[in-house]
Structures are given as structure tokens and as C-alpha cells.
């Protein structure tokens, strides 16, 4: 499976681009899955629900299954967050896995950058950031600068970069 990432500062629009990019890639006939890194703990469960009680009682994994989807929750407990490669290996095969976050992992990424937010670029020479998508023109960036609002051009760039026809 090919992997490609979106990185950027909090509030830059990573998720907004992700949800616009997914249909553009799927229209090209690609199968796509996503992995999103959450910087803070999260819970898909609610206290009192059976699955929550299973985890609370010590289950290492709990699978929820319904007619239209299933989800597997794995408790890390005192362990460490698994490497991205291990997480991707758990996914069903697809053409492309889009990664949101995981900016320290070595895979090609587009940085989402909004100068109006006042943050410096994450891009540095020899980083894994292969393009910057911005809502304003940028000067002096050593990688292509893409128009953040041109989702089709970004989808074209991703497909070319990972070697997928689309």
C-alpha cells in the first residue's frame, strides 16, 4: 500500500483538506483508508455502555460490530504507542493510506500552512515534506507550493508522487 501524509500546526486545516481530498481520490478509482494521530487521549466509548464496561474490566481488545460497520479498540495501557508501520499493517489492503499527523515519521507529506495563523513553516531542507499547501503565495520554499483551495491539483500531486494513476 502506498502512504502519503498531511501535516501542519493545530488548526491549519489538515482535517478539512483530508475530507476534501478523499472524494477527489476515490473519484479517480482509488481505494483509500486513513490513519489520524490524536495528540490527546480519546475515547470512542461512553461510560455505562457494554463495550466500555468490557474495557474497564480489563479486556485488551474490544470489537464492536453492527450491520453497517465494525470497530476494534485496542488498549495500550502501560505500553507504548505502536509504530506507524505496525498500525498500517492492521488495515485491510487499499491503494493509498492517507496519514494525518505523525509528522516525525518518515513518509512523504504535504504541509498545510496558513501564514495568517502566525506559525513558521514546518518544512526544512531534507525533510519528508515534499510540498506545502497554502492559502497564500509563499516565497523561498524549496518544494512545490500548492493552492490549498485546489483540491484536484493536490490530488493530482499526491497520485503522481506515490505512483498511482488517477
UniProtKB/TrEMBL annotation:
Molybdopterin-guanine dinucleotide biosynthesis protein B (MobB) domain: residues covered: 3-135
GO biological process annotation, one example: Mo-molybdopterin cofactor biosynthetic process
One Pfam family here: MobB
Coiled-coil regions, chain positions: none
A single GO molecular function term of this UniProt record: GTP binding
NCBIfam families referenced in this protein's UniProt entry, alphabetically: mobB
Protein name: Molybdopterin-guanine dinucleotide biosynthesis protein B
Organism classification: Bacteria, Pseudomonadati, Pseudomonadota, Alphaproteobacteria, Hyphomicrobiales
